[in-house]
Design a protein that fits this description.
flat; 7-stranded mixed sheet; 22% strand; 942 residues
Length: 942
């Protein structure tokens, strides 16, 4: 007998999933305790579905059937159930079979699989989710193929198999369709799985943001407290659906208006009508009963404003885990707890289920997500002050269920959102976040302000294990615009929401203040832009002069964007409205380039410029890029010059963003320039090259032998010969080093390698520390070698302490460091920098996620600040960067093909004009961890 408390019960197969319609279900192994649930489930299945399952009329399960379907060994016989509210809504089962089709045990690698889904839940994607999970279980148990017999009329089940994306065979035998599925994940099956994930998670958020009815639970009779405040905000926002208040303290039998026309009830069950969204504002100890009431009433989602959860310590964290478990058990989704609320400004919804005071923010093109309520208030206020509206807003508090990943899934195809702004204190699942962000950033900007770089003691948000520099690099690779402050988040969002993307970095500057123009010019240089000389219109310039100058700048082929600077006039003859109209007219006359305004003490201008008064201009063709300036690092590959399509709607493009400081305007513009460059670059995606000399099978065999005696959880550092052999299988040649425990041994080594040679110490405290005198180069004779050996041992210690080695000299070049490491959260990360001070002291290291493409490798070596040293700095000869790019790609292939390789350090890699030399390598191995991103869809567990 196997129960959930049995040690043999595979608890790691339990998972919460989002179904096609946005609801949730729990998938878990079937146990002997499920007999009653199975019988009840089967009684609710139609006769037709039973016929399709058993190929004959089968009105009820016999005792023998119930025993068979609830007793499993979880190896050769496995059953999984999808449940809601503890009851079965679907089941799947596999039985391992041999070549003769009869029950078998290992090493047979085929199993027969069958599904049954309750009719009321068919069409929700239950069978597809069960297939993903039973497939993962089968692979874990050594099963490589599924076989299924399906009646030809059972089109729904045939479609479940054929749409899964697996390699499959199909035949017609004895009146049924026989399907055989290869369970090895393919690019197609992964794409299918992620597309289903996106649709389901987006739909789950949509249900939260577009409810037809809302109940606020926990509204005080006095009208005070967060419940009453939220109810007032819902009422005053003009919510288009039905609105209810629930107050358990109301006298029995009394119904009336609690707050200006909002009907109040003692309990949710008394409402007598469907409720889509419940806003919960009761003390934490009362929340479980409220959740149970909501689940029984059929509520689709909850916004829990109540505090006292993960932010309050260990006891609160346990309470939060139980809350998530309970909410999901009813098929609901949860925003919170400790949430600030949600806003949907769509005119057909007008939902303000938050603590943000009315009125509802006006409709705009920006979507906003925050983990912090305080930050949410600041961002809403900042957007409101500067005339920008919202499409949607979610402040998720402790984000125990719905997170930034879910919101990105929703915004990806939300036509009302053009720009996604997120304030995050942790990425949660960095691997998934970067994947979703990259896909979203390909169609609309994603701007992130990430707090928690240095988490203080006692802070409730868990710190990430990834270094902040690595996080920034990975976000950049995904096309995410990362900013440092919430002010910058608003600044960048305003520009991207109101203006087209710039086609390049050339910036025209014009205005009525020479000094402000110079400040703007300096700010452009600081941000890596290419400003043109500022045009001073003088303090006597009129709005008409501004209009003429701006139209001329926009029409010029020499600039990609314009910054207008403005200071107050001495006289009152020109008003802010006049200047705003003049600038807007110039933009309408010559559309297609972004414009930003820097103002000094012109508050009226901000309001005038933020008002939308016309129709959107049509984007014109982008000018071709100029050649790089002297001494610049050459681009990896010329990017297409056609800018991305402008997604903004008519009537919104004529808003011109304004900034009270040149640095802020230029920072926002620079981020838009870099994002535009990324969008153009991904239009021609890079490739992961194939190398014919890679010995993938040989490497797999070597790794298997090396790890045979290594316990799970331990890391093995390879000896130099093993490391050289493994790397050599991927075309990475590491120059040999020979031990030199004595002067005579050093001389013998030099004779084998050939002069000139290098004498180096390899002790851990001296390794790669040429500054300590542990390296002697260009030793051309035996006498020089013996003398250097004597000096080395006299100065630094005995040979047994120094562990000296001899290595043949290689051509001089630039010393670099190439590394790869497996991060538990982000996956394999490829890193590059120059050896020594640049990377160790200054942190000048660049990172990319594995697998890296040829574009990634080219960008990696060009993205460090010291990259000019590779490309002919101050007249030196450029080094062989194509050879360096190939080395990076080969290492990326190695760690991507073999997740057992958890760390590689190549240091130094000397890159010369005609090639490169890897002088030292450290390789670390461990048993491969499970790849959660390649497994079946599942919600995070807490």
């Amino acid at each position: 007998m196997t129960t959930e408390s049995d040690p043999s019960y595979p608890a790691h197969w339990e998972a919460d999933v989002v179904l096609r319609d946005g609801g949730t279900a729990r998938i878990r192994p079937i146990t002997t305790e499920d007999a009653g649930r199975l019988v009840s489930f089967y009684e609710q299945v139609s006769d037709e579905s039973k016929y399709y399952r058993f190929f004959a009329p089968y009105p009820r399960l016999s005792d023998r059937d119930v025993h068979r379907f609830t007793h499993h060994d979880y190896v050769d016989r496995v059953g999984l159930a999808a449940t809601i509210g503890g009851e079965f809504i679907g089941t799947v089962r596999y039985d391992r079979i041999g070549s003769d089709g009869r029950p078998a045990t290992g090493p047979a690698d085929e199993a027969e699989v069958a599904f049954l889904v309750q009719d009321a839940h068919q069409g929700r994607g239950v069978a597809s989710a069960l297939l993903e999970h039973i497939g993962a279980v089968a692979r874990e148990r050594g099963i490589r193929r599924f076989a299924a017999e399906v009646l030809p009329a059972n089109n729904k089940m045939i479609k479940v198999f054929t749409d899964a994306g697996y390699q499959q065979k199909r035949s017609f035998e004895d009146g049924s369709v026989r399907l055989t599925l290869d369970l090895e994940p393919t690019a197609e099956s992964l794409a299918v799985q992620r597309a289903r994930e996106q649709r389901a998670e987006a739909r789950s958020v949509q249900r939260l943001l577009t409810p037809r009815s809302v109940a606020v639970i926990g509204v005080s009779r006095s009208g005070s407290g967060v419940g009453a405040a939220t109810l007032r905000n819902l009422r005053d926002s003009g919510f288009h659906g039905h609105l209810y208040a629930v107050n358990a303290a109301r006298a029995p039998g009394i119904e009336g208006d609690l707050l200006d026309g909002v009907r109040a009830y003692r309990a949710l069950a008394d409402i007598g009508a469907p409720v889509d969204l419940a806003v919960v504002a009761v003390p934490a100890d009362r929340v479980p009963q409220v959740v149970a009431d909501c689940g029984e009433h059929g509520v689709q989602g909850l916004v829990v404003l109540s505090a006292g959860y993960g932010e309050s310590g260990a006891q609160g964290t346990a309470r939060q885990r139980e809350l998530v478990r309970q909410v999901r058990s009813y098929g609901m989704r949860l925003i919170g707890p400790n949430a600030f609320g949600v806003i949907n400004a769509a005119p057909e919804v007008e939902l303000n289920a938050s603590l943000a005071p009315a009125p509802l923010p006006k409709r705009g093109r920006i979507g906003l997500f925050t983990q912090s309520g305080a930050i949410g208030i600041a961002l809403l206020s900042g957007l409101l002050r500067r005339g920008e509206g919202l499409s949607s807003f979610v402040s998720a508090g402790n984000r125990a269920d719905v997170s930034g990943n879910d919101i990105l899934q929703y915004w990806y195809d939300d036509e009302a959102t053009d720009v996604a702004l997120l304030y995050l204190e942790t990425l949660g699942n960095p691997r998934k976040f970067t994947r979703l962000a990259r896909r979203t950033a390909a169609v609309k900007p994603v701007v992130v302000a990430k707090g928690g770089r240095h988490t203080p003691a006692g802070h409730v948000v868990p710190d990430t294990r990834l270094p902040d520099a690595t996080v920034s690099a990975l976000l950049r690779q995904a096309g995410v615009i990362r900013v440092d402050t919430v002010t910058e988040l608003v600044d960048v969002g305003l520009l991207l929401a109101a203006q087209p993307l710039p086609a390049g970095p050339r910036i025209a500057i014009l205005g009525n203040s020479e000094s402000l123009g110079v400040l703007t010019y300096d700010a452009c240089l600081t941000q890596g832009l290419r400003p043109l000389p500022p045009l001073d219109l003088t303090t006597a310039a009129s709005p008409a002069d501004f209009r003429t100058a701006l139209a001329a700048a926009l029409a010029s082929d020499d600039c990609d964007a314009v910054v207008v600077t403005a200071i107050p006039w001495v006289s009152e003859r020109a008003l802010a409205d006049d200047l705003a109209d003049a600038l807007r007219e110039a933009v309408a006359e010559v559309p297609g380039k972004p414009v930003a305004v820097v103002h000094v003490e012109l508050g009226e201008l901000v309001e005038a410029l933020s008002a939308a008064r016309g129709t959107a201009p049509v984007r014109g063709p982008a000018p071709p890029p100029r050649s790089p300036s002297a001494g610049a690092v050459p681009a990896a590959t010329p990017a297409p010059v056609t800018p991305p399509a402008d997604p903004r709607t008519a009537g919104e493009r004529d808003r011109i963003p304004s900034y009270p400081a040149a640095e802020r305007a230029v920072k926002a513009l620079a981020e838009a320039v870099r994002y535009g460059q990324w969008r153009r670059a991904i239009a021609e995606p890079g490739q992961v090259p194939e190398y014919e000399d890679i010995d993938e099978g040989g490497a797999a065999g070597q790794l298997s032998r090396l790890l045979a005696a290594v316990p799970d959880g331990e890391v093995l550092t390879l000896a130099d010969p093993d490391a050289r052999e493994l790397l050599g299988r991927y075309g990475i040649r590491v120059h040999a080093t020979l031990p030199a425990p004595s002067a005579d041994a050093a001389v013998s080594a030099a004779r084998v390698l050939g002069y000139p040679v290098a004498l180096k110490t390899t002790a851990s405290h001296l390794r790669h520390r040429a500054d300590l005198g542990g390296v002697r180069l260009d030793l051309t004779t035996e006498a020089e070698l013996r003398r250097s050996y004597e000096e080395l041992t006299e100065a630094l210690g005995k040979p047994a302490e120094l562990l000296p080695v001899v290595q043949a000299m290689v051509p001089r070049g630039v010393d670099t460091v190439v590394r790869s490491v497996i991060d538990p959260a982000a996956g394999a990360v490829l890193s590059f920098g120059l050896a020594g001070v640049a990377s160790e002291l200054l942190g000048d290291t660049a990172h990319r996620l594995v697998p890296a493409t040829d574009r990634d490798a080219a960008g990696l070596i060009r993205s460090i600040r010291t990259a000019p040293l590779l490309f002919g700095w101050r007249g030196s000869d450029p080094v062989n960067t194509p050879a360096l790019e190939e080395l990076l790609l080969r290492l990326s292939r190695l760690v991507d093909d073999h997740p057992e390789v958890v760390g590689v350090s190549l240091e130094p890699v000397v890159v010369a004009t005609d090639g490169l030399s890897v002088l030292s390598a450290t390789v670390r191995l461990a048993h491969a961890p499970a790849r959660s991103d390649l497994g079946p869809r599942t919600l995070p567990s807490y």
